[in-house]
Write a structure and sequence with these properties.
The protein is of the alpha/beta class. The chain has helices at residues 16-20, 38-51, 54-68, 74-83, 104-123, 174-183, 191-195, 203-214, 228-244, 246-260, 303-310, 322-329, 339-345, 349-354, 373-382, 393-409, 412-432, 436-465, 467-480, 502-512, and strands spanning 2-6, 88-96, 128-136, 147-150, 153-156, 221-223, 274-278, 281-284, 286-288, 291-294, 297-299, 315-317, 332-337, 361-364, 367-371, 520-524.
């Protein structure tokens, strides 16, 4: 396998937080324990075993069996059977229900979890873990999930629906689905199974099947948390949040500590960190002097909590309480996420304590940059190393020209000589007649501009001589950092599986991942 690793600290594309979080010892005050080795997972398993009840496990297994059993592969059925055992735990990642499961980093999240699960299971014999993908089906930010970039096209689900994305109908989905099908028309590969999933269901149900099939070979259990039975397990937290609102003070205290340590808090808590779900709506629950308000309707201090008993699924946690919901219903050891997710997870230790829930280990997912054969040839021909292409396009073009025509482009000496000539001319003019000084200065400014024009023509001519190389630099830079963002955040993973045989891509990525290494992995695809 041809791969190399680049320290995040060397790349401006990663935030200072993301670069620093590779060493969790720096954030020990905001964690129950830093996640530094596989042995930390075993310690977490001992703690979680006493904190997670057999009754909760039974509900979880029943729900998962009902949700995915009809679509599960043999490895997923095995993981589901293992989950029923009291010594089996989960390692989890999650994501919004993005269009066709993009972009690239969704693969990296999930396969990171798979690799970590396998390493943990091989490291000891007391416990077992299975990989879980948590569907953020209650998220209502449609703009963040409705589009994907694939083959230089932007595919978009054009819908006017509102509310929790997972509850949306798919009546208006056929157009974008048909566009994707046309891109792979006549390519009888694994992609056809994904393209044939029925749209006559909710978007969450559709995506659960899509993701279950996508990761069928890796035993990943895909959970849809918008379920009444699972929400009933979370009901004590919902009631506590409505009654006492402890999360706000806990986050405020964490934020002060983070700011003191030099970090900017990622998320802000509200007095009540719950939404209320109804048809086409995910509405904030606001605390008022008389109780609660939802879209202008006021509920008494007892009226809204009473609804939890009969309809817990109507209550939806926001970003502050969503992790607590996850850790309440799963026998989870660790959550794997991106740098932005880690930034808000470190705000939540006090929230977990306030709701008497065990805080998990957390870990930043691997980041990967893919280079296909065509891109590798361009890079070799240009002659720069891979890290160089994470610089700005303009800087790289300048570096290339200086490298290949430094003597032709080095006009610094010429301008230094001109400055000496300028001073001599002005002094000479003054010695003849002081009134000539301003005239001489004006003429020298005009001559300076002519000199700059000559420089510009020289640079233009040199650029023309290297036009093909500069175009290659532009092409590579735009693929490395499309719209000034990391490739993994922009391109759909099918961009690197143009035949539709995505299983080959998944396997190459899986083999390259290293869950205990925080560096950027640059992978040359075979």
């Amino acid at each position: 396998m041809n791969k190399q690793c680049i320290d995040r600290k060397q790349l401006s594309a990663f935030s200072s937080f993301s670069a620093a979080f590779g060493n969790q010892a720096n954030f020990a005050d905001f964690l129950n324990a830093p996640f530094l080795s596989l042995s930390d997972l075993e310690l977490q398993a001992k703690a979680k075993q006493s904190a997670y009840s057999a009754a909760s496990r039974a509900v979880l297994c029943d729900v998962l069996s009902e949700q995915i059993a009809g679509q599960a592969s043999e490895s997923q059925k095995k993981a589901l059977a293992d989950l029923a055992l009291p010594t089996t735990f989960t390692i989890t990642t999650g994501h919004q229900l993005t269009l066709f499961g993009g972009p690239l980093y969704l693969l990296y999240k999930v396969l990171h979890v798979v690799k970590l699960v396998e390493q943990f299971n091989a490291s000891q014999s007391n416990y077992k873990a299975v990989p879980v993908f948590w569907m953020a089906s209650e998220d209502h930010d449609l703009d963040e999930v409705r589009s994907s970039h694939l083959f230089q096209q932007k595919l978009t689900w054009e819908t006017t629906q509102t509310g929790a994305v997972g509850r949306m109908k798919m009546d208006d989905y056929s157009s974008v689905h048909e566009t994707l099908k046309q891109l792979f028309e006549g390519k009888e590969t694994a992609i056809q199974e994904l393209l044939s999933i029925s749209e006559k269901q909710s978007y969450a149900a559709y995506m659960q099947v899509f993701l279950t099939k996508l990761f069928a070979d890796y035993g990943v259990l895909v959970i849809q948390p918008d379920d009444e039975r699972l929400k009933q397990l979370f009901a004590p937290v919902i009631r506590r949040e409505l009654k006492d609102q402890p999360s706000f003070d806990a986050v405020q205290a964490s934020n002060k500590s983070l700011q003191k340590a030099g970090w900017t808090p990622q998320a802000q808590a509200r007095a009540c960190n719950l939404f209320y779900l109804s048809d086409g709506k995910r509405s904030r629950i606001d605390v008022t002097q008389n109780g609660f308000a939802i879209d202008g309707t006021v509920y008494s201090e007892t009226e809204l909590p009473d609804k939890v008993e009969s309809s817990a699924a109507s209550f939806s946690p926001n970003v502050i309480l969503r992790p607590v919901y996850q850790e309440t219903i799963l026998p989870n050891l660790a959550y794997i996420g991106g740098g932005g997710e880690m930034a808000y997870w470190i705000q939540l230790k006090g929230v977990f304590q306030a709701h008497d829930t065990l805080y998990p280990l957390i870990q930043q997912r691997n980041s990967v940059h893919l280079i296909d054969a065509g891109m590798q040839k361009r890079i070799e021909k240009i002659g720069f190393d891979v890290p160089s292409f994470f610089e700005t396009k303009e800087q790289l073009r300048k570096t290339y020209l200086l490298k290949h025509d430094a003597d032709q482009l080095n006009v610094e000496g010429m301008f230094q000589q001109f400055e000496q000539l300028k001073m001599a001319v002005i002094e000479k003019a003054k010695s003849v007649d002081v009134t000539l000084e301003s005239f001489a200065e004006a003429e020298m400014v005009r001559m300076r501009k002519q000199l700059e024009s000559i420089e510009g023509r020289m640079v233009k001519q040199v650029k023309q001589q290297h036009e093909q190389a500069l175009k290659s630099i532009d092409f590579v830079c735009e693929r490395f950092m499309p719209e000034n963002t990391l490739q993994e955040r922009y391109f759909h993973w099918l961009h690197f599986a143009p035949s539709g045989d995505y299983k080959v891509l998944l396997q190459q990525v899986y083999l390259a991942l290293d869950p205990l290494n925080s560096d950027l992995i640059v992978l040359n695809l075979q």
